[in-house]
Every structure is written in structure tokens, then in C-alpha cells.
Amino acid sequence: PDLRDLYQELIIDHGRRPRNFGALADANHTAEGFNPLCGDRITLFVKTRDGVIEDVRFEGTGCAISTASASLMSEALKGRTEAEARALFDGFHALVTGHGAADEPPLGKLEVLAGVAEFPTRVKCATLAWHTLLAALRDQSAPVTTEQDEQGGTA
Ligand code: FES
Ligand code: FES
Predict the structure, then answer these.
(1) 152 occurs within a structural domain
(2) Which range marks the domain in which residue 135 is found?
(3) Which of 4, 26, 41, 118 to pair with 51, CA 20 to 30 A apart?
(4) Does any ligand 2 atom lie closer than 6 A to the CB of residue 149?
(5) Is the CB–ligand 2 distance for residue 93 below 6 Å?
(6) Region Disordered: which residues (predicted)?
(7) Whose CA is nearest to atom 4 of ligand 1?
(8) Predicted ipTM?
(9) Of 39, 58, 81, 26, which Cα lies nearest the Cα of 130?
(10) Which ligand has its closest atom nearest to the C-alpha of 125?
(11) Could you tell me the CATH number of the domain that includes residue 139?
């Protein structure tokens, strides 16, 4: 099978059987994300200790892309420092928006979502969890929306 098929399979797998799905009782950071284009919502739970992400879980309703992206993100973040998580955000965001490709840090499995760069509405799906992550790390109480992030850029 070619790479595209493997990528597709991984997205379908994580979309159907999301890892780290469900609330995290001892989270010390949470945030909500909302995609006004479709009405989908995500709640993200992050547990950090001494600046290191020990656990990440999420709940919500979303399409296959947003669910797969949140699932892959949750796996990628464990054991990272908050600074590393922000660097991953930047790299992933550059990849899926097609703006300013970054070669560092290595994105690993997150690269399976590169294809959404061709579909602007799907970019919102793929980045919903990630924008919610930044909101969680800065303890933002208002839901982050994918419209607001278009203007803010770094939302
Ligand atoms: Fe709603 Fe993808 S269609 S997040
Ligand atoms: Fe992140 Fe628009 S999708 S700034």
C-alpha cells in the first residue's frame, strides 16, 4: 500500500477508536474548543507536573478528522514539557495550514494529517484540539473558537 493509504488507515482508526477519550478527574488544566462551522465541541483535560505533561484526555463530538487529530495529539503530548508541546503546535499548525513548514520538531504520526492542507474547512477540524490545547495551557476559561483563531493567529 502506498503512504497515502497508510495515512488514511491511521486517521480512520483513530477516528473510530480514539485514544485517551473521556474525562480526566485530576486534570489541572482544561479548556473547551468550538468549531462554529459545524457546531462540534471538544473539552480537553491536561495534567501537568513541574511543567511536564503527564496525561491528556478529551471528550466531545466531532468528525473523524477532529477526533483522530485529538487522539493523535493526546498520544504525542505525553511526557513533553509545555514548551515542547507549544513547539509541536507550531510544527503541526504549519504542516496542516501549509504556512511556513517547520522541520523541527519531528512530527511523527501527526504527519498523517498533512493532507488536510488542501481543504480549508478540514484544517479547522484538524486544529481544533490543538488550539484548545493552547487555551488549556494558558487556563483560558472562555471557549476557543476556530473563527477567533483565524484573526488571532496564535489563539
Ligand atoms: Fe466539525 Fe470537523 S466537521 S470538527
Ligand atoms: Fe489555526 Fe486558523 S486554523 S489560526
Answers:
(1) no
(2) 3-147
(3) 41
(4) yes
(5) yes
(6) 141-155
(7) 125
(8) 0.92
(9) 58
(10) 1
(11) 3.90.1010.10
